[in-house]
Amino acid sequence: MKRSELAFTLALVPFDFFALTAAATAAFFARYHPAFTQIRPVIFDLNLDSYFTVVTPITLLFILIFAITGLYSTRRSSVGRELSRIALACSAAMALVFAISFFSRVLFESRFIALAAWILAILFVCLTRLTVRGLQRSLLHVGIGTHRVVVIGDTTVARALMEEFKHKRRLGFRLVGHFNTFNKNVATHLRDMKRRDQLDEIILADPEATRRETLELIAFTEQEHLVFRYSADLFTAAVGRSIIHMYAGVPIIEVQKTPLDGWGAIYKRLFDVAGASVLILLSSPIMLVTAIAIKLDSRGPVFFSKLDDGSPVERMGQGGRPFRYLKFRSMRPGTHSMRYEELAAHDTRKGSPLVKIKNDPRITRVGSFIRTCSIDELPEFFLVLTGHMSLVGPRPHLPEEVDRYKPEQRKVMTVKPGITGMAQISGRADLDFDSEVRLDTYYIEHWSPWLDLYILLRTPLVVLLGRGAS
Fold first, then answer.
1. pLDDT, tens only, 199-218
2. Cα(276)–Cα(263) distance, integer angstroms
3. Which end of the chain, C or N, has fewer beta carbons within 10 A?
4. Residue 443: domain span
5. For the chain, what is the domain count?
6. How many other C-beta atoms lie within 10 A of the C-beta of residue 171?
7. What is the C-alpha radius of gyration for the chain, rounded to an integer number of angstroms?
8. Claim to verify: residue 154 and residue 72 sit in the same structural domain
């Protein structure tokens, strides 16, 4: 771990202490503000000195709860997870304070100050943490706290990582070397870099690397005290959520099911219904204008809901069950069957069950625009309401595509397909299919409400930038 990261982690303790003290002080003075005293006059006698004799031990209790809940962990978590932990930790600490007050029969003079201090504590600590993150990110731009990494692998994954590290310094990685494979000559070179203090981490970006090569690289990083990371293959992504049990001295790994089972599924359905309803209302003017533009641009129906032979358009849903699909028409009528015939030679995803046509001649003028901006997918909100799709999830695939899936790739159909998802915000049509499956598998195994919210908020930016639009 970098020294700057350790320094920032240690600094969080006094920063949190000052933030909590400031929240308590603000709550105290807020109670005596005319805006509140006019509503309810102050009928208790509480001075600042006696107030802080109570606040100081409570602040230390908050710090202890923060430590127990992992808010001072050296491992960096996502912004959403850290802020949610702060809210939960502050609430748990305040509940403990109320419980101690109740059982000790010592009643605090002002319920307003207590509630205001609780809310302000969450706000102030969150703002402090965001400020610290902003300062860390600023230092990364000048090279302070940056992890110097070597990428090993001659794959699309390796090239994508190197491109990401090159253009996004805020991630905290600086590429200092790249090798196609790991061997004795590479090990010697890496050891020299370590001796000259030019290397911190090694990333194996080849999911198909041999077991022997991987074990040798792990042993090398342990000997040289280097951080080792690797890109997950489909198996590793599938067992991301696992529990180790010991039976007869043998470690047995239990692969956990997706958190979308049980209450997760209930929450996600309620979120989908509420979110789709709001989004339909907000996007209805856009859908109306789109429908008019499609009719004026070319002959044919507004919606793409039937194939050339009159059969309904279908996509594969949860559990491999087909459902009627609906979106705005973006192609000339009667040209869908060309997908696997005349245009097969222009397939941009060779070796994949998916078919993507570059510069597709079937697309109309309006169709090209609505596809680039993903407007053609707005009617999918109605499919979310009917329960066939979700706001976030793997992309819905065609039956003929699913027929060509490998067994391990069918895991993406264990949940409802989504309008957007991990793959869509990570490259859309630019991703190879195995990478798309890995991302969707990660989503299935690590789903959380915060992850859904992150993907939804990230989607408009990806659409506006036009990354990988098909």
1. 999 999 887 788 888 888 98
2. 20
3. N
4. 263-465
5. 3
6. 14
7. 28
8. no
